[in-house]
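Why does residue order matter? Because the sequence determines the fold. Keep that principle in mind as you read this record.
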Amino acid sequence: MPDRSLHASPNWYCSRCSDVSRGGLLGVGARNIICLVDVSASTCRVTGELVGHKDLVSGVSFCQHEAQSHICVSSSTDGSIRFWDSDKRTLIREHAAHQNPVSAVHWSPVEKNLVVSGDEKGIVICHWYNTGDTSSFFPEPRTIFCLSCSPHTWSCVAVGYKDGMIVLIDVSKKGEVTHRLRGHDDEIHSLAWSPVATEDVFYSRPEDGEATNGVSAAEEKGGYLASGSKDQTVRIWSTARGKGVTTLKLPYLKRRGSAVDPGVKERLWLNVHWPKGRPRQLVSSCFSGELMMWDLAKSGKQRWNLFGTSSEGQNHSRIVFNTSSFQLPDGKELLISTSMDREIKCWDLDSLDCCWTLPTLGGFVYALSFSPVGSGCLALGVGDNMIRVWNTLTTQNQYDTRSFWQGIKSKVTALAWHPTKEGSLSFGTDDGKVGIYDVFSNKPPQISSSYHRKTVYTLAWGPPVPPMSFGAAGGKPSYSLYSCAGEGVILQHDPSKLSGDASDIDRLIRDTNNIKHKLSPHTDLSWKPDGKVVAIGNEDGCIDVYQAPSLKLLCSIQQHHKIINSLRWHHDHSSAPELHGLLASGSSNATVFVHDLHSVIENPPESPVVLTEPYRRLSGHTAKITGMSWSPHHDARLVTVSYDGTAQVWDVLEEAAVSNYRGHVGYLLSVDWSPVDPDVIWTGGKDFTVQEWNVSKQEFTKPPKGKKMADLKEKMKTNTKQKKKNKKATGGAAPADLNGEAVSGEKVVTGQDVSAEDEEDEVSSTNSPVPAPATFEVQRKSSAAVKSKDKPDLNLLKKKKARSMLPLSTSMDHRTKEELLQDCITLASVRHSHAPAGCVPGQGDHIHLGLFTDRAALHRMFQAEEEGHVEAGHFDSVVYLRLWSGDLEGALQLAIEKGELNDHLLSIAPTAGFGVWSRTVEAFVKQLCLQEQYLKAASHLLSINKLYEAVDLLRSHKLYREAIALVKARLPADEPVLKELYSSWAAALEKDGHFSAAAKCYLAAGASFDAAKVVSRKNDVLSLSTAADLARISGEVELAQSLALRCAKDLAAAQDWVRAQEVLSSQDSLLVHRLHLCVAELLTVALLHSDVVSTHSWASPGKRHVGLLDQIRDVWQEQFSGSGLDGVGGLLQELKSVESPAPSANVPLRQILLYSSLHLTRAVLSWLLDDDDQLMKDLWQTLVWLKDGGHLDVLAELCRLLFPDGDVGSKKHSKTLHLSEEAEAAASGLQALVCYHRLYEFWWRNSAGSQKIHNGPSCPEDAAKDGAAKDGAAKDGAAKDGAAKDGVANGGPSEEKLRPATRLDELDFDASLLLSERHAACQASQRAVKEVQERLSIMMLQHSRAQGGHPDSGEKQDDVPREKDVQVSADGDQCSEEQETLLTLSTKMSSCQQELAELPDTIKMFPHPDVVECCLVLLHLSRSSPTPSDSLQRDAKDLLRKYGTSPSVLKASRRFLS
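Structure:
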């Protein structure tokens, strides 16, 4: 290994591409190798590399167990898993279980033999190091981004996916998924386990309101898991519960420094790392390369501290990809981080300061150059678009390197230090740019205004030559900058005025040497150190030596036969003057020639001399020469680098090989000899590395040959063999990015083509690999060189030949040689008026001669060619022939007929006149419409001023947006067509369900009403509210009120009372509806006792008054006193106009309360107006909704709220009741309902007391199982009430058991109101009518079956119970079903209906509770309590005898009437 080196940059976008062993050895995946760096000391040192993967390394992990700490595992996108011995740098074992690129790998911290890997298709594989066995699982069909083995349980593995899912799997149970952790919504970049197994309680913010149910988190085992995602959050998960614990949102930090290109879009890779000895601290990356330490036990907004805040320049300048930590023997814990800025940094976790920085390279090292002034200052030109300047003599920091990137947009391919000015460094780039940097300042470089068309290969400082040398004494610089590039041109730049034009020295060479012929393209130049002569290498292998300043040609060296790649003059501080004239040259053949030009330079010849023999010939390399350097410490000692992958040191005078260096992988591109150490040489090459090595320490003296050379070539070609494979591969998981030049000769790029080894400074889409273009070679190549040397694949270069416009005449040129020669004689005869008989140029066998004679012959040839094209169907060719012949109108007419018009023909149509052009445009528009290019067609109509036709075209094809834009741009604002367009577009949008867009169109068309209506069609709360506001703003008052009312009702139905009131408050005329919702809210809160979405403070149960009416009145006065509440009469009339449906049993309770509250609102308004009649009727309607809906428990509660003292006519509600007959009936019905519920309350209160006394439950008798509730009581829903179910319906408690030992409570109401004989008669008649109707329906059903045949078995089964019921009922009435006829039933029906008709309407309008049921309850109470009076009992028995005729009632009343 070399003493010092800069290795390749770590791969980008990998979850674990670096790891540290227990002993402090860092393994970093860089391209397809693993670089090993010793980080255990105060400074780092590159110790070696592990070579063997055929594709990018995507993961590296060391075994953390003592005995195997030198073993590591790596994964690659070639699908392989390799185990390495890092001490011996050897491969132990390779597994090829994956069939897809591997995206993550981890060595279990618990089980020393277990390695887990995952690929981009979702396959997880366990590798057992000791046995070599593998087992695969497929937990999820997703792309794996990262995985991490638990440090607490060997079988638990966390896997992070591209879509944000994290799963915990148990590898001991065939990959069974134990938990799925959902919370992230983008790529999972990193996973890190807590170093402790318990889940401590310091995480004080559980996610999603999750409760621990009284269990301390510390009691649960499993350990916390941290995840970092592209969604900019770090989440902490409880693996025991499978739930999120807390979320850490990345802060947006102000960028420090200026090392980030502002043109680059912000990127994020969120890496997380949990240091081993710090369970409450978590390290994460951030947006711009910052590292932050999160204090998980700390509360508040800023729970983090930044790394590297003690001084500027410590942090990374780009995003961080990987972090790993290890502990020194003294207990100090260090963190290693890798970043997109191509630096590896070491951090002290106690102070959070940077300990050292190791720079890396992201591209080929194209140029190496030591400063001739600044001792030990090495400049590197790298393919990652940056220049590095390395102070190699620093003792404190061995890697004291500065990077320069400003003004550089492509690879740096050439460098040259100024010979005398310290810090002045010139550079050339792949895109032809030449500039000069002052490396001691932070200023951007000076860039020459003269660009090369191709790659800059060589830069050289030399004396100025004309025209720049004119006036040199007047302050002109003593040095000019010369650049040679791939197009074969050498430019001379003025370093003091780079903004001026550079001069091409070829003009001076031609003028001075009187050269008329074309000069060979130049490929390299080298000025002799004393500035007297310059050597220029050419593409044809010739080397020309010119004398300055006139550039007179002294000699031409014609020894190489291939392109010249490198020229170097011997240094001039040697003790032997004869050596000063030595020129070394290297070309694309493997031999190095050294030329002695001392005599030519000292005694310039009058005419140029041609040299064909070299002074020395250095043979040994086996591939082309790419660079060379003379030793400044020796005489005639030269080092050369070659495509054979080695650097060779030569003793030139002896033509002997001294030393051969083979430390690089791949070919070498640059070399320079150390200016301070005679034994040290620096080389750079394709492997992204710069290496320092000693000449005296090399094992070999010559480059490898024979089998060794074959092996070396195989090693060098390891990367390029993957080209075809990679071109076929598809993208998947986050690829192991080269961070620079692609190993396989291709690179993922978007937007522009880059060369094969071009490095990708910023990776864009990684899912669509693009095949790379041809490889860029650092050697000088012109197009001619490519053709002659490289012999590219002809199939790739072969293009489809265009169809000939003159195929007939062209075919005549492919006849036999004799016929072609005869044509020449025939043509000569025609030209000299001696045409052979029958020869007509342009026709028949002489059609091709029409091209060589007069115009008439040419037209005849055109006519024949047209006929041939028409026969072949090539009408476009016919059009062009007519166009060439001047028949423009005919050409256009033919194109119109055949549909072959195009933009070119249309562009020349105006030359034929406006009429022709207009017709052509119209025809082209039709053609474009057939091709569905409507926008282009409309644009062409505009060109002939047919605006309305263009608008109609767009509208007819539903391009309303474009049509409107066109009209608004070209026509007045009041144009009627604009309104039509808006209306048509609105109708189309409304049809497609795009209501908000349609509303905007209606608004633009001035149809505010339609806009509001279409918005409301969505019928949700937000749409209705918006539509109401829209109508209100537009002045559509009635519509606004209607929509606001609909919205408020929906909100009220959803129990969102606050928003409902807010919606109504925006409309001034909806006060009465606000009052209604106020009452509904009070009623709902009072009766339902359930949570609502939102309610007002005045509706809370704690503020209830004695009576509900008083509470409503007080709330109205408090909340609506300034809203027009004085006009109560008008409000009442407005509320009466609101329709209310008839009560029904199928309406939900919440809706029933809304309807009921409407009547209660009317009642309160009537009460405020002292309208007693209306008050009673509305109170009755308020209760009848709940009664008919069957909600008797709610009805009882409402009765208690409305009439707390049990008296409907209480003075609390009306000072004196003046009631009409109808209102009196309503009041009586209300009072009866109140008494009915108080009766049941009394019954159960005393029943509970009696049972308590006797210490036993009630015993219902068999005779009461069907109960009275099945008859009359069921009509009023009493059977649904809890009292009726367990009381009368079940016969009640037995007489013996319920006889009280003490006197119970007395009735506190007048029960006689419940025993109304008129209501009992009405209810009996109604029951009789219902019974007759049932019998008639049975009879009609039997008759229809008898007429239609026997029913099926299913119908029989359905009807049997009904017939039995009718039979039982008939038996009870002492009349069998066989004795009844249609006539008798009709007579009975008429009789019952007559009885009902004779009863007053008020009895039917305001019915009392079931009288028979009330009789049974009172008589039952009389058995257990003397409370009912004797007269009351007598009346009850009389009513039972008279109206209790149903079987169930008879059975229940038998005990009381016997």
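The CA atoms of residues 1132 and 1165 lie 6 Å apart.
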